[in-house]
Write a structure and sequence with these properties.
The protein is α/β, with parallel strands linked by helices and 251 residues long. It is 47% helix and 15% strand. The chain contains nine helices and seven strands. A seven-stranded parallel beta sheet has the order 3-2-1-4-5-6-7, with helices on both faces.
Length: 251
Amino acid sequence: MNRGGGPRNILVLGATSAIAQATIRIYAAKGASFYLVARNPEKLSAIAADAQVRGGSKVLTRTCDLDHINEHAGLLADVRQQFASLDIALLAHGVLGDQAEAERNFAVTEAILHTNFLSVASLATHLANLFEQQKKGTLAVISSVAGDRGRKSNYIYGTSKAAVTVFLQGLRNRLDRQGVQVLTIKPGFVATPMTAHLKKGLLFASPHKVAGGIVAAVERRKDVVYLPWFWRPIMLMIRSVPERIFKGLNL
């Protein structure tokens, strides 16, 4: 991270996600430079234009399907060519998946795990090595409160996020002594296109609120952040329920 408080060089993977877009807007107003990556070129172009209008110093884009792990090395090599150093990398891509279909068809389960964990682990490995060489920087990755405990309604998605959380714990233990921040972001329910099919309630947060929490957590060099904050005590209570009781709950 740029500890002098000046504009950052920021890589955003999955830049068209609602949380990523809201985070980009905040950093653009601070004069950051961006390298934005997503699958949809039209949406990516619109987000890049918006970032420039809001004050982004330099906005580069690359269309890429991050499921294609064999393309990650080339992608990160280009990032290193474009930026003398990288201050923040935000990994924001992922899928909710169809739990019911995944229960019937392992190929669906495999696809969810590939997108949410394996592609993230690949990118995080490349970025960890880059930041380790720099001896500075922030690797911020969106996990989920769903990874804190398996529930029948979304245990495939939850498994992928639990794997991300543990992977980041290991990276944090490896990189902290190198001056690198590894931030695990655990949102609860967020009103995004991914959750459009769910009934909205009091526990839902806006992407803007979550983005503000991400920026604050980066500034404070936190290790793990629950967003909004109240998900930390909620998940603490959920994790404390004995398995013999939890298995009978309708969750």
